[in-house]
Design brief:
Blueprint lengths: L12 H18 L6 H4 L12 H20 L18 H4 L6 H21 L18 H27 L5
Length: about 170
């Protein structure tokens, strides 16, 4: 795993945003290091049966797909989120327990590399092809900021789940 850092190589806005998103992603991956396959699938919170390490990593992967590819680029929704319903709003978390954590982490990292390039190749003021619920079109800057918030929030969930399944803390 590469050294995590929240210090950008340069002080321009794009480098700062990209660095913080990568830092949050790297933290999510670090929270999964060394966990057993069995523990990665455990849901230790009785009222949150989808809250597993596998489920959270899958969720982060598919949330990035949704915001970068579906909303920003205007592509069609594919993958587990395409089957989301009111009765099953998080199929990416439910189905993740059938996928080995190393595979989920590898897919997340591969996808992150593509999105790093996307952020580098587009102006931060570029607007999303699809509107959000209120009809407005967010810009790429907002998408990156939203994903920093989303990933960081779920890092807290990863912390709690990891501690409950095998006692590991820190990172």
């Amino acid at each position: 795993m590469p050294q995590r850092t929240d210090t950008p190589p340069t002080w321009d806005e794009r480098a700062q945003l990209a660095t913080f998103l990568d830092y949050a992603r790297d933290t999510a991956r670090a929270k999964c290091e060394g966990v057993s396959a069995e523990d990665a699938r455990k849901a230790p919170l009785p009222t949150s049966p989808l809250m597993t390490l596998c489920g959270l990593i899958s969720h982060l992967r598919w949330v990035e797909f949704y915001w970068f590819q579906v909303m920003f680029l205007g592509e069609e929704q594919v993958g587990p989120l395409a089957g989301a319903t009111d009765d099953d709003p998080d199929p990416e978390m439910r189905t993740a327990v059938d996928i080995p954590l190393p595979q989920l982490l590898a897919e997340y990292e591969e996808q992150s590399a593509r999105y790093r390039r996307l952020v580098f190749d587009h102006d931060l003021d570029s607007t999303a092809k699809r509107p959000i619920r209120d009809g407005r079109h967010v810009d790429l800057r907002w998408v990156v900021l939203h994903l920093i918030e989303e990933t960081s929030r779920h890092n807290g969930h990863l912390d709690v789940v990891r501690e409950l399944v095998d006692g590991q803390t820190g990172t």
